[in-house]
Design the sequence.
């Protein structure tokens, strides 16, 4: 099966990495990318291919020709929070299946758009499928065995690049699951590590990942200190999101081929593995 | 609800700890304990109570009086693998609900006995309910999302007191779940740490737990090394099993009160929390 992919958000770092990963995993990169109005470059070379950048003002005229040349094209969006909703509207208007890797924007409006149109898409706040699986696993624990860790103490510490001011949304989501187990634990109790020497010494973040990482440790300790559980997910860089985006494209292409495409999320992508 | 508990296996260390834990958590310890024929002591003081030891040769004559004095009595068995089946037969014959914390013996015969008699009991190879919950969580991951960690590398290391020669059964059970996710990982690849200096330096086992601990670390690493997941369950001593045994007694007493008692296992005890 030959799958054409247009990665939007080039020349952004994430867009370029996603395009390279798509290419490395055998998908056909089309030589176009939607970009912002303010971008100066007209073309960029990614994965050995020259990619023409299309601004909002030029894309409407170009898209029909592109769709004709690359039938079945799937868009992957790693653009900007401010572009999420208008890009999604563009994809729906031109009936282009898409994977939305960009965070932010009006998520409710985004969901309404794809649901109303029953538009083939994968939208997820986190494209790292292993992290999504981890979150589902903790939610399973909380739902199935809410009393298993009664009397235990929870502690959560997360380290991200020092430029990230706010608490990780993933950590908050995991803590919400733990609260279902009776832990009296507020989001403000999540410990943030943003000091680089501490990130290396205590969290074991490699030096070359200081500028981009997500290291999380969740600990459960019995009251008498004799039992310690620990769950870590440590991500350097953003490759995991690029890989997850490829998985999402492959999943969406499969659903389109089966004529079963509709709006999906990353849990659907994960669960699909079950049926193989 | 006043619950009478007879802890069998005193004066063994585990039997004594279980008796103390039962007492600490508000259960009524009856002043008798089944013990082995070779035990020299006639009575032992546990949790401030004098416990009369009953040998196989004397217990048949004593049991009717005990059951009369302590109605609704539940037995908790932490005796010896060689006593598992004869003790279970004794409990069934005298219609005494029981929690079997002793490992070994003929487990198939044990299950057949309680199933045929629909005998109120909790039998589990591992009374540490948090560990059982962890195992269920990994099994959930393997069953629901078997492709989530495709291309990752698994490594498993477990540390136990140096007198434990064989590989942990818990580690083997967890690895069996991981194999469902496609990991080509043999039980022989589980790394055993039995060297005390290494246990302290590498596994962070406290010195006072060298003689009794179970420290397990499961790691998943992406092929490019950018993503690392780690799951640890580190247990010092055997208190966790004593606490789990109390949970099992409370669960069984509740089921008896609801007239819904039958043979159960630790998963049933764990799941019961869900309904509360």
Sequence:
């Amino acid at each position: 099966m030959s799958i054409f992919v247009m990665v939007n958000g080039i020349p952004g770092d994430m867009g370029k990495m996603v395009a390279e990963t798509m290419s490395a995993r055998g998908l056909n990169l089309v030589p176009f990318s939607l970009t912002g109005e303010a971008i100066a470059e007209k073309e960029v070379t990614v994965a050995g291919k020259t990619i023409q950048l299309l601004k909002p003002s030029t894309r409407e005229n170009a898209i029909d020709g592109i769709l004709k040349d690359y039938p079945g094209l799937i868009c992957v969006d790693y653009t900007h929070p401010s572009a999420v909703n208008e890009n999604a509207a563009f994809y729906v208007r031109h009936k282009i299946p898409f994977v939305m890797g960009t965070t932010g924007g009006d998520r409710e409006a985004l969901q309404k758009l794809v649901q109303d149109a029953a538009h083939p898409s994968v939208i997820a706040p986190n494209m790292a499928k292993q992290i999504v699986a981890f979150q589902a696993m903790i939610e399973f624990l909380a739902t199935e065995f809410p009393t298993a860790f009664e009397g235990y103490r929870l502690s959560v510490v997360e380290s991200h690049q020092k430029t990230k001011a706010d608490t990780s949304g993933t950590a908050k989501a995991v803590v919400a699951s733990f609260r279902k187990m009776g832990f009296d634990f507020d989001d403000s109790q999540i410990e943030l590590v943003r000091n680089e020497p501490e990130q290396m010494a205590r969290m074991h973040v490699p030096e070359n990942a200081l500028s981009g990482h997500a290291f999380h440790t969740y600990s459960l300790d019995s009251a008498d200190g004799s039992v310690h559980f620990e769950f870590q997910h440590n991500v350097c860089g953003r490759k995991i999101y690029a890989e997850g985006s490829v998985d999402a494209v492959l999943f969406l292409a499969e659903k389109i081929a089966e004529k079963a495409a509709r709006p999906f999320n990353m849990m659907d992508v994960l669960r699909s593995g079950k049926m193989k």
